[in-house]
Amino acid sequence: MSSHHPVNDNRSDVSGTHSANSSSSALLFTYIGQSLLGLPVAALLVAASLRGIDETLLKAAVSLGARDWQVFLNVVLPLSLHGVLSTLGLSFLIAFDEVLVAIFVRLTQIRERSPRYSLPLIFGK
Known about the structure:
By secondary structure, the protein is mostly helical. Helices cover about 75% and strands about 0% of the residues. The protein has one domain (about 15-125). It is elongated. It is a multi-pass membrane protein. Belongs to the binding-protein-dependent transport system permease family. CysTW subfamily. It is found in: Cell membrane.
């Protein structure tokens, strides 16, 4: 009789396709959740930045023969760039603040799949 016992008996292999699919879907849901956290703040900041653009500049660009996409690229985007950049920064900070929630959700999913791993081994992958 052999004394060799498989480590993952009746469980999905850590390197198998089932765990890779569940891992990638968990990562996708984490990205979606983190993105949704900053969405309301992002919408408010970008809307405020766009409201600050003087309408006469847009009319002047159109009267000089600019097409809609040229007005957007040459007038709207440069004038709203400070709002877009501050939105990116603030959304990143909001998502970074909630990173512990994402880690705990991820660790719970990993623990359900293979409870024999410890925290340093999970982050070392």
